[in-house]
Amino acid sequence: MADLEVIHTYKNNLQNYSLEQLHTITEEGVWSIGQMYDHLILVAHEYLDNVEACTATEKVQTHGKTEFGERLFKMGGFPPIKIKLPSELNSPPNNSDSKEELMNMLDEVIQRMRQLESKKNKINPDYKVKHGGFGWLNANEWYDLVSMHFRHHLRQKSELEGKLGIR
């Protein structure tokens, strides 16, 4: 699935949810669909901020990825497992956004990706920013991580829809 195509899938699906479905938390410790969207959007902006940080640095970084980072990029995506973040990084996402707000925020992600798409290829691949779990990533890798993260959450989206009886 192409970089922007997966985000458009989320946008198209968003139109099908009622506000109640968007905000329903089906069980303790499980996000609502709206929280999942909020998480995806916030993380996408974080990753795109790092694309821009790679453009701002002029320091060559010789460090590479962690072993997990190498596997992740070799596979072209996250493994089909649930990933639990450390509790200090795992505060619940916002659950009050409207469909329109989420739609606008997804449009902002798409706009940023379009703006950075041509720039990222011109950045020295040795200009990198460190990811806490994957190691040192260059602008192209940070950019690719956005769609990899959206694809990773497709399974969660499907599970949440199933719990709400949405198909």
UniProtKB/TrEMBL annotation:
<dbReference type="InterPro" id="IPR034660">
    <property type="entry name" value="DinB/YfiT-like"/>
</dbReference>
<protein>
    <submittedName>
        <fullName>DinB family protein</fullName>
    </submittedName>
</protein>
<dbReference type="Pfam" id="PF12867">
    <property type="entry name" value="DinB_2"/>
</dbReference>
<feature type="domain" description="DinB-like">
    <location>
        <begin position="14"/>
        <end position="156"/>
    </location>
</feature>
<dbReference type="InterPro" id="IPR024775">
    <property type="entry name" value="DinB-like"/>
</dbReference>
